[in-house]
Design goal:
This protein is an alpha/beta fold and 290 residues long. The chain has 7 helices and 12 strands. β5, α2 and β6 form a beta-alpha-beta unit.
Length: 290
């Protein structure tokens, strides 16, 4: 028998969601935040045995169950995690609609050390949390999670996709979509989609960024890369003959393309004046801060 994680759920039927909490100790007004963009539901669960702390945000189920990945990150505050989940869930609604899918938008976040090796208890607890929503939300892999993590989720619920031996890791497909998008932008700007000799400033060398770098390098693009994890950046440098720069320096690189493939809100009042590119095209969600 699948024991549910202890959870509480709040809903509001319910315009931009703030990118970050203030961090000054002020309380977060939950229901106005939900109402601002018509989010249907937020479910919060805590399981002390495993240390699981999870938030599931459902933006819309008008067209069908809410689909969206599970993000595992070391959030600075619980409020940051909630705001991230809400923004990502809303984005998934629009992605599903643009793709013509009978699905809505949702997202889940796990709060904690995303590099932990003690993953099975956490993701099985997450599976129980998802199961408690009775099919309203379907999850998959996202930042900080793997296909192996989704197998642990599968042990507790059928409402999960991106499994080993089935659709699997979505990052190569995501990277290919970004690659084709960059080529389309290049054609629009220059009349040719050829990327040989073009300079791409790539932010984030994780799953999507790595596969995108391989595609760009194979076409002869010059890569300048940055990542908060030096090992990930070094892998792309070694395999793609890229140049690495410190994470904050990537915004000032003179390039043809800026490809954000890490976290969101990287195009903002502070970074926009620093960009020296004609094209911004990457795999990160919610690239615009507002």
């Amino acid at each position: 028998m699948k024991a549910p994680a202890r959870s509480s759920a709040s809903s509001s039927r319910a315009s931009s969601i703030p990118e970050r909490s203030s961090g000054d100790g002020r309380s977060l007004e939950l229901f106005p935040l939900l109402a601002e963009h018509d989010h249907e539901q937020v479910s919060i669960a805590y399981e002390p045995t495993s240390g699981y702390r999870g938030i599931i945000a459902i933006h819309s189920t008008v067209l069908g169950p809410a689909l969206g990945g599970t993000r595992f990150w070391s959030y600075r505050t619980d409020a940051d995690a909630l705001i991230d989940a809400l923004r990502l869930a809303r984005g998934m609604t629009y992605k599903a609609a643009v793709a013509g899918l009978n699905l809505g938008g949702g997202k889940s976040v796990l709060i904690g050390d995303h590099k932990t090796t003690r993953r099975e208890p956490l993701f099985r607890a997450h599976g129980r949390h998802i199961e408690s929503l009775k099919g309203r939300y379907i999850t998959a892999e996202d930042v900080g999670t793997t296909t192996a993590d989704m197998e642990y989720v599968k042990a507790e619920t059928d409402h999960v996709t991106g499994l080993i031996g089935k659709s699997g890791d979505p990052s190569p497909v995501t990277a290919y979509g970004v690659y084709r998008g960059i080529k389309a932008c290049a054609r629009h700007r220059t009349g040719s989609d050829a990327l040989a000799g073009k300079t791409v400033a790539l932010q984030g060398c994780g799953s999507v960024g790595y596969h995108l770098a391989k595609l760009l390098a194979a076409e002869g693009a010059r890569l300048v890369v940055a990542d908060i994890d030096p090992e990930r950046a070094r892998r792309v440098v070694d395999e793609c003959r890229a140049q690495a720069v410190p994470p904050d320096d990537i915004y000032g690189v003179r390039a043809d393309v800026f490809a954000p493939c890490a976290l969101g809100a990287v195009i903002n009042d502070a970074t926009l004046p620093r960009l020296q590119v004609e094209i911004v095209a990457g795999g990160a969600n919610n690239q615009l801060a507002e």
